[in-house]
Structure prediction request, 344 residues.
Amino acid sequence: MKVAFIKQHWDVFGPWSSVPWQDWETLFKFWPGKASLWEATCLLKADWYVIPQQTSNWYIQEVIKYRLKLLTEKYVTNITKTDELPLHQYDIVITLDPILPHLVVPPGVVFAYFCNENSDPNYIASLRKPFGKYDLFLAHALDAPNDFDHLPAAVSFPYPRHPKLVRKLFAKHKEEKVWVEWRTLTTLARTELYGPKAEGVLNDLQKKLKCKTVCYSRVNRSPYSITDPPAFGDAKTYLQQLGTCKYYIAVGRKGGAGQGIVDAASAGCLCIGDKTRPYHRIICYPDMLCDSIEEAIQKFRKLHEDSRLQKKVRTWQDIKLFDEFVKRPLRLLKKAVRLKRGNA
Prediction:
């Protein structure tokens, strides 16, 4: 199954260059910001194409507001003209946002898209039906139907993960450390971005947990984790540091699906999560879901002291991770290809 991702020039997610699949490490040379799509790229061995700017949707307006458009114009390289995209080489083409609604793909090629932000009006509209000529809307917040029997369709679809690779590369040696998600810290500190107040909350939590407590916060001091100049390869540093931690806590965050906890599960961390986040409800052992940071502290103490509970938590997480974030996305993509080619 050959897959391509396509993004537009001002989109800050993913690599900042058109780059064919070579290996996991090459991607980091072009990749600032969040790491989640890196796992998906490695699992699917997908090629990436950056095309000229197509739309100015809600997400792009956010990019402009935070003055990140100027950075993409300065640092994004190797832009591919839309009419030069080799679509015939692929079974599945996935765009970030519905940026090419009128594109005609070759027969038998599944044409799909994510929306970068689930608060984008395009995301809400896509839950009813994919835009234009798209076959699939991939709803990363998991608020669409769980399956489909025809195209076009919207389907709940998390960003696929590659835990075997992440653990091989970044999680060989665990330490008695707790990683607290930066959004938990900024929420408790009542700040938008990571800074001194969030650092103070981190220090207070370390005293309460009585265990070394960390957060890789450098890129989280800026919107969308993009710095000037962009920190290419910083996702690798993030995964390296996350991989050394035995525990992960993410409770009380303001919004979102909770993708960070899947980073942690991929890296083999024992996770304590938030009952309100859809990804947390999938990944976390039921007794490790919380309503508040106070409850999370109590559950961490219980988990930290009980090796048998740790084994239960790890077994639960791994089953859920491989079933829901590896096997299920691959099954849905293969099904879409069969339906598109008329041999379901």
In short: The mean pLDDT is 95.
